[in-house]
Amino acid sequence: MHRETRLVPYPAGLMYRVVAEVEHYPEFLPWVLGLRVKSRTERQVIAEMLVGYKGFRERYTSRVTLDPQNHRIDVEQAEGPFRTLVNHWRFTPRDDGCAVDFAIDFAFKSRILGAVASAAFEKALMKMTEAFEARAKKIMEEEGVR
Predict the structure, then answer these.
(1) Is the dihedral of CA 60, 128, 112, 84 positive or negative?
(2) pTM listed for this prediction
(3) Which of 49, 90, 93, 130 would you label with 6, given CA atoms 20 to 30 Å apart?
(4) pLDDT at 108
(5) pLDDT tier at 69 (50, 70, 90 boundaries)?
């Protein structure tokens, strides 16, 4: 389990949007090699993602549950190499931006794959919130979002 809370100078709505717009992940998350949205409703996205790091490549499908009113996003693997893969995002408005709470729990089905890929996956996770924050900054600059 990895948890982190970060205070960022961006509105909660913008941070929520950056995480909810999964189709843009290949543009700013370096380990996301491809992503296909299988279905999207106001409350749920089913997306197939291809991730890679060095020699490791894996494809999996996630169910992303969206709660825009409460600035919450919950993700769980629907199909793929993980025994467990769940993550939770919470965006709490503050006067100076928002607090981003991120938690993820994962375990690979295969012990061999787990031994090979866990270190790379952990490294990617450590950079995840930084990448989302950089994306929010870029959107604010391009669109003048406040």
Answers:
(1) negative
(2) 0.88
(3) 49
(4) 79
(5) very high
Q: How confident is the model at residue 117 (pLDDT cuts 50, 70, 90)?
A: low
State the average pLDDT over residues 6-13.
Answer: 95
pLDDT band at 24 (very low <50, low <70, confident <90, very high): very high
- Tell me which residue of 110, 102, 109 sits closest to 131, measured CA to CA: 102
- Domain extents for the chain? 2-141
What phi, psi does 30 have (nearest 5°)? -60, -25
Top CATH class of 2-141 equals alpha beta
Backbone angles phi, psi at 51, to 5 degrees: -115, 150
Cα separation, 4 vs 102, in Å, equals 5
Q: Label residues 80-101 b or e (16+ Cβ within 10 Å = b).
A: bbbeebbbbbbbeeeeebbebb
Beta bridge partners of 94: 97
